[in-house]
Amino acid sequence: MASDKNDKTYTLLRAFINDQLERSQLEELFALIEEADEEQLHIAIRSILDEEQTPENLDFIHERVELLQEDILAKINPPQSSPSKRKLSSLQIAIGIAAMLTIVFTITYLWQFGNEHSGTDQSIASTIMPGGNRATITVNGQDFELDTDQGELVLGADSLFYGDGQLLTTTGVQQSVQVKTPLGGQYQLMLADGSQVWLNAGSELTYNTGFGTDNRALRLEGEAYFDVVKNPDLPFTVEINGQQVEVLGTAFNINAYAEEPMVKTTLQRGSLAVANNDQKLILKPNQQAILDKDAKKIATRDVNAASIVAWKDGIFDFHGMDVEESMRVIARWYQLDIVYKEKIPSVLLGGKMSRGVRLSTFLEFLEANFDIHGEVTADRKLIITRKSK
């Protein structure tokens, strides 16, 4: 396959990247991809991206990756189609989807690691991979390293097992259970009552066996997103830094890292009570309770909860974050020490990015959009400087 601009595959690829492909063209592209030479396909994609290298396109590509499967299925087999038009077999659809997924991830890869126009030194940054599914669980002093290929652990009433049913260990009565993610780690948990927890990097969740039967009490350090099953007879409570969150059934996020000056509790759905000493506030959806650790006071503000909890879906959302807060997020995910060479840049960041990218991609984003330069040393220090105008 040639990469000439008149080439049919090139034209269809370019239309796909810009979300301008009709159903009939998508099927044609499937057929051409199956016959294409892989190296020439990569060349064609690189050529297209060289023409259209903008941060907006990068955001668009990441969103396309997330929505790709349902989008393709809808185009191949739209609800309004008559049975006579549904000619593709299940096997053909599967092949087509797999082929297109390969294209999009190839596009993302070439964008992230093949950009020759960036001013960022990527020699070290390009080797630093993002975090992943990593955690340990401690049951009465015995440590278990969780399977990185699993990603979900079910914390049953008397046993711990992975989402696919594989048993990890059994638990006894009145035992303490602690789940801990390292820097650069994350893990999803299913609690004994059916509630779900997404544990972010550098976090720790502790509970006692009996959870879901005679209590629903947890302790948290770090950050977690909770989707709680409703049970009016057994309130769900989370203790963090002397503050207590109590819910019946709701979805919310708690950010309580030791290095953060505030404890932030964000409600996405339902309602919950946040209490500290003699203060007690009731949150509504898209509200956030902010506990000032020094003043020991709680205040509330309106927020976009979807933006704050985007991390659990694999997205960095920097809207409203200043440089310091953003760098702390990055440091936890890529296991870095942040060093400011000069005065900390006084700027609010914005934009979204996949948490699945190498560090070099984030540094390109930072430099291209905010004139902030990041350089990584061999001992994983990220040195931040403001580019001169």
TrEMBL record:
Pfam families in alphabetical order: FecR, FecR_C
What Gene3D superfamilies does the record point to? 2.60.120.1440, 3.55.50.30
Q: Give TM segment ranges.
A: 91-111
Q: Cite the entry's keywords alphabetically.
A: Membrane, Transmembrane, Transmembrane helix
Instruction: Enumerate the spans annotated as Protein FecR C-terminal domain.
Output: 316-383
Q: Does the keyword DNA-binding apply?
A: no
Among its keywords, does the record have Cytoplasm?
no
The FecR protein domain covers which part of the protein?
Answer: 179-271
**Which PANTHER family does the entry mention?**
PERIPLASMIC SIGNAL SENSOR AND SIGMA FACTOR ACTIVATOR FECR-RELATED (PTHR30273), PROTEIN FECR (PTHR30273:SF2)
Stated name of the protein: FecR domain-containing protein
Q: Give the organism's phylogenetic lineage.
A: Bacteria, Pseudomonadati, Bacteroidota, Sphingobacteriia, Sphingobacteriales
